[in-house]
Amino acid sequence: MSARRLIGGGLVVAALALAGCAPALPEPAPEPTPPAPLAVLDPDQTAAVISALDEVLVAGDAAKDASLLAPRVENPALSMRAAQYTLDERSNGQRPPTPLTTADQVRVVAATDTWPRTLIAVTEPPEGTTSPLVLTLKQDDPRDQYHLWTWARLLPGVETPPLANPETGSPQLPSDASGLVLTPAETVAAFADVLAKGDQSEHAATFATNPFLEQVRSELQSQTSNLEGLARVELQAAPVEGAVYAMGTVDDGAVVVGVLTLSTTITKTLSGSTLTLGGPIGQWLGEGTIPSIAKVTYTAPVVFEVPAAADGATITVMGAERVLVDATKQ
Prior knowledge:
Order of helices and strands: HHHEEEEEHHEEEHEEEE
Radius of gyration: 30 Å
Helix content: 25-40%
Number of helices: 6
Mean pLDDT: 90
Strand order of the largest sheet: 1-2-3-4-11-10-7-6-5
Distance between the termini: 119 Å
Shape: globular
């Protein structure tokens, strides 16, 4: 009986030994991490894009002819510049176009593998001015050239947020990018609401105090006060659909560029009175007397610094521009 136990024990040991020699089962390899997108332009290519833009801006401004801008400028920048040429003519040179320059200090190049692609340049102050410009250029598809899409003046005291080196590029973010105080699209829409409603907007506390907001609201209050008893003044502000681009910053925030349409309606309320508008609106109209209603339209590109949601900070308006593009009366 003891021999059987030894033989049985030997069989168990042999089985264990065979089990210990069995090869390990293969484990699935993890999916390789896709490489991060690279900067879409190298420094030489960026310089060439800026130089080509400068050539058409110089030619267009010299002739006051928007058609000369078309090879390197697209809407809304193209319609903004064309409107400035129109006002310059109708005012007999009293309202010249905004000085533009492409001499840049900072370049922000998108790192993406999709289109449209963007390039942001912060310039030196144009001659005769003290405010640098924020130029936003975009390429709509691989066969297209980069075009100037918007420009805006950097507001006093504003510093550009920490951005990636142009050689590595900054991530281009979608309009619904999360992780921010507001998504890029929400940022532009919320600021439009603040422009129109002032402190009555639910988003008023979301934005830091800024000169552009103060100017628009101050002008509205002044017009309302000056025309009290004669006319009603109403301001509407709305984001231009699809006109939002954003670049990520190194601190997980974003630089967001959006475009607003600002519309002022002046409705005469005192029957038999004569209402005459002066300034650039009157010069655009040619004769500023209003029979009943005047409608004035501005295009307003705005540049924001949007912090990461975790920071809980307010959104900063870095730059803005407001250009009269149309005025009608009836």
